[in-house]
Amino acid sequence: MKPLQTSSGDLNADRRADYAEMLFASGDHAEAAELLLGALDLAPRWAMGWFRLGEMQEAAGRPDLAAQAWTTSLKLDPADRQGAALKLQLIGRGPVATAPPSAFVETLFDHYAETFEEMLVGKLDYRLPGVLDAIIRQTEPGRFRLALDLGCGTGLMGERLRPIVDRLEGVDISASMLRKARAKGVYDALTKADLQRFSYPGEKADLVTSADVLIYIGALEGIVATVASLLAGGGLFVFSVESLDGGDFALQPSRRYAHSDSYVRRILEANGFSILTLKPTTIRQDRRQPVNGLAVVARKGHAA
């Protein structure tokens, strides 16, 4: 993952950090970390710099020093826009989280909005909107009155849904992603919201989609209960997860969550859904390897 490019506020510190990145790219991880540490002497309250130092120390095989750097980053930025707590969890130096920090997810996608589609579709062979669109059309041919696209991003799923939906609304945590989606003109309404704390005051939808989004939520109990409350009886919930063998869900080195087949089934059934489709699919490529996932269609039970 490309590091977030933010300034320390000190020109000399920024220059040293740039040199550190050049060394890191050349493979000299230990020397890069030493140079970045020197930059942090000039800008000791630069939370992003401390986070990046942790990544360099980790790459240099120094987990203790990486943990120290990430702990410092977290103290300087308790909202954790860098996702330092997740890094600490992954190396066994922090508590297990059931969801990522919301500020981390928002910052991540604000940062990637400009190049998101070029990278995801052009370089990572992302085809999930097409996969989910085909499943929707096979499951329920015809039109939907109201669809909510949760985690809509730049509107890749929305472009697929528009021809079969009378009213289409999108929700995303990133203002930069929403600007990209708005420019496409495929949504009737767009809302900035954190899906971990999302509520919808409008009428009940008959379709809710969430393409490649639950990987940034972790525990699914809350979001599935929310979706159940948004849907009319008989409505469809169409989504994807990354696959996990065994257990319920787990944080991956990518800082995304994977979910098991059995966990997905259990949470859906507990919230009154019947599973119509749950099939393996390739979500995207990551470091030239396929990311395996599940494409899921579930129907909310009709109200008595």
Write structural notes for this entry.
Helix content is 43%, strand content 24%. It is of the alpha/beta class. Strands 1, 2, 3, 4, 5, 6, 7, 8 and 9 form a 9-stranded mixed sheet that branches. The model has no long low-confidence stretch (mean pLDDT 94).
Give me the CATH superfamily of the largest domain. Answer: Vaccinia Virus protein VP39
Give the number of DSSP strands: 9
Instruction: Please report the first level of CATH classification, the CATH class of the largest domain.
Output: Alpha Beta
Domain count: 2
Low-confidence stretches: none
Reconstruct the topology from this structure.
Layout lengths: L10 H15 L3 H14 L4 H13 L3 H14 L7 H7 L11 H11 L3 H8 L4 H12 L4 E7 L5 H6 L3 E8 L2 H10 L4 E4 L12 E6 L10 H10 E14 L4 E3 L5 E4 H10 L2 E14 L2 E12 L4
Parallel strand pairs: 1-2, 1-4, 2-3, 4-5, 5-7
Antiparallel strand pairs: 5-9, 6-7, 8-9
Quick summary of this structure?
This protein has 304 residues and is α/β, with parallel strands linked by helices. The protein is built from twelve helices and nine strands.
List its salient traits:
304 residues; alpha/beta; Serine Threonine Protein Phosphatase 5, Tetratricopeptide repeat; Rossmann fold; 9-stranded mixed sheet; 9 strands; elongated
